[in-house]
């Protein structure tokens, strides 16, 4: 059996130095296009397979980034991942997805994986870090935060204006004549939950509607909690004609609870979600919701990560626009 070609064989075949081959593999953007194509053609012609382990030992880089999400079963993250992977692939990186599950041990595990050079950086889609990791922020590995915010830590960020988006969603219900509007919140100890609650309160204040704590239903973005909280609220005899949920999953859970109690959406209760996931458009009736350009956000998060890893310092934080997509789950309030 013939020996596998090595990096020196590729360099000789391409007529370049071994350093140029290494640079093409590690940082293709730093190599002239003509040279890069020549090296890649030699790699393909010879069937050369780079030794990733050796490269990690040599350069202390793995060309791998971890996308850490709240709940890997939530379809919201699929388009984010696609965008991250597209930008990563174009730059020669791989992407792994981690599942935080609101578990400090799991979050710490992924942070330590980067510290130990199993990955180069973390794109965080969680709203907090364990306290032990916050004690010395200077020791944190390269991190980019996407669509979340780790309060009291200044980290590179890709975001949307959650306050304005929530305010616009609730204003839509108010414009439809609704005054008793329940809010299924995100976690209220984290930025997303607080920001969307703030937008809800601002919309009420704009319309001169008094805040009612009975209409604040604490949630966690999950379908099950959305369903259960609405059922408990109905059991308490609290009346409402509209629901603004901080996620599509909670909105769908809420609609499920309403149906169980013989209430129709939107004839009896209008429902708005947040995220515009695939489920939102497929639900019956299709869900009015806040659209976020998730794929573009994923690409931007990975580009910001590469910028940080290469210490280019050329890309700023970005705030992407949102849009309220009006579908069949909202309608004017019926005055009885």
Key features?
six-stranded parallel β-sheet; alpha/beta; 336 residues; Rossmann fold; 44% helix; single chain
In short:
This protein has 336 residues and is α/β, with parallel strands linked by helices.
Strand content: 15-25%
Radius of gyration: 24 Å
Count up the helices.
13
| N-to-C order of helices and strands | HHHHEHEHEHEEHEHEHEHEHEHEE
Q: Could you estimate the helical fraction of the residues in percent?
A: 40-55%
The overall pLDDT, averaged over residues, is: 91
- Count of structural domains: 3
Q: What is the CATH superfamily of the largest domain?
A: Response regulator
The N- to C-terminal Cα distance equals 85 Å
CATH topology of the largest domain: Rossmann fold
User: Major beta sheet, specifics?
Assistant: 6 strands, parallel
Strand tally = 12
Helix/strand/pairing class, anyone? alpha/beta
Low-confidence stretches: none
- In the CATH scheme, the class of the largest domain would be Alpha Beta
General form: elongated
CATH architecture assignment name of the largest domain: 3-Layer(aba) Sandwich
Strand order of the largest sheet: 2-1-3-4-5-11
Write the layout of secondary structure elements.
Layout: H1 7-14, H2 18-26, H3 33-46, H4 52-59, E1 64-69, H5 76-90, E2 94-99, H6 104-115, E3 121-125, H7 131-134, E4 143-146, E5 157-160, H8 162-175, E6 181-184, H9 191-206, E7 216-217, H10 223-235, E8 242-245, H11 248-260, E9 270-275, H12 278-282, E10 288-291, H13 294-309, E11 318-320, E12 323-325
Helix pairs in contact: 1-2, 1-3, 5-13, 8-9, 10-11
